[in-house]
Amino acid sequence: MTARLSVRAKLTLVYGTLMLVVEAILLAVVYFLMTYVPVYRIAAADGPVGMPVPDDWQPPPGPWDAQPAGVIAISSKADVLTSLLWSFGVGLLLVTALGLLVCWLVAGRVLSPLARITAAAHTATTGTLHERIALPGRADELKKLADTFDGMLARLEREFAAHQRFAANAAHELRTPLAVTRTMLQVALAHPEDHDLRELGPKLLATNERSIATTEALLVLASAEHARVRTGPVDLAALAGEVVGQVAAEAAQREVSVAHRLPGCWVTGDPALLRQLLLNLVHNAVRHNHAGGQVAVGVLPAAAGGGTLTVSNTGPVVPQDELSFLFEPFYRRHGRAGRGGAAPGAVGHGLGLAIARAIAEAHGGRICVVAHHAGGLTVTVTL
């Protein structure tokens, strides 16, 4: 039966029962004191019971409260105790009934925020994540619970929106090369005399390589997000120097200078994953730049262990409201094609920063990005 009762009813029954028990104990104590401590000796008056008080009767000296005229009759101590039990019993029932009513009202008042939290949770199960409880009042336990639930809904809403964008962008990225390949083949088959296999082959090969590169980048992202990091000592400065040397040719081709300041800095992590993190950040800094631009790579050891990696570059101005989207998979400024403000010649799949963030978080680190007023970004990774 109790399983079908509401929390409000259970609280009312619990507090009502406790109150009834306390009242019963109080009645028992009073009854015990009246019965045994102290012993009152009441002498019988001369004359019949209920005889009126004489007119010339004077009260004894000392304080005396005036009482209304009447008749006082006490036949035995048992009558006093019986009257006491009846009086206390009726009072106990009345007080208990009143207490149950008060407990019911107070419990409903205290538990009313739970109804709002339950309604919000039920709404969230239907997929509606934009509604919030916004519980007013003091910061008590229920207020903290409601605020925590609102924060969870906000995070879920952001995550679901990011996943929906990721699914749409991934479908587009994977479909585009296939559609381009199909168009090339259809045109070649429709006019075979106008197309040379030696011209069509490299185009198809380049489109195919784009599909492979996108798929491989997705696999790297999935691996980074669910990676089991094999930790060990890693010379972050030496690793950064190798990556800078690896991208030197591409930087020279794009007329971008790369400067580095790499004092000794040891961290704990997976060398392969940290190399991928560095490669993605430096590649992004070089590719999203302009001719004559600059890239600066630096590491700084921390006094308590670990270190900080910074990669800065010049380039197009990035608005502050776009910074939070840079770490989303397939995100490119001004559309996937990088139009209208993207660096000339910038290539990629929009997965570089997403992979870097996944690797940093897998190492228990943090990654953040700051936009320069003159253009370009500074990405900081703390390990």
UniProtKB/TrEMBL annotation:
The chain crosses the membrane at residues 12-34, 84-107. It comes from the Bacteria. PROSITE patterns: HAMP (PS50885), HIS_KIN (PS50109). One of its GO terms (molecular function) is phosphorelay sensor kinase activity. This is histidine kinase. It is found in: Cell membrane. SUPFAM superfamilies: ATPase domain of HSP90 chaperone/DNA topoisomerase II/histidine kinase (SSF55874), HAMP domain-like (SSF158472), Homodimeric domain of signal transducing histidine kinase (SSF47384). GO terms for cellular component: plasma membrane. Residues 108-161 form the HAMP domain. Residues 169-383 form the Histidine kinase domain. Its main location: membrane. The keyword Cell wall biogenesis/degradation does not apply. Keywords: Kinase, Membrane, Phosphoprotein, Transferase, Transmembrane, Transmembrane helix, Two-component regulatory system. PANTHER family: SENSOR HISTIDINE KINASE TRCS, SENSOR HISTIDINE KINASE YKOH. The keyword Transferase applies. CDD domains: HATPase, HisKA. It is an enzyme of class 2 (transferase). SMART domains: HAMP, HATPase_c, HisKA. Its EC number is 2.7.13.3. InterPro entries: HAMP_dom, HATPase_C_sf, HATPase_dom, His_kinase_dom, HisK_dim/P_dom, HisK_dim/P_sf, Sig_transdc_His_kin-like_C, TCS_sensor_his_kinase. It catalyses: ATP + protein L-histidine = ADP + protein N-phospho-L-histidine.
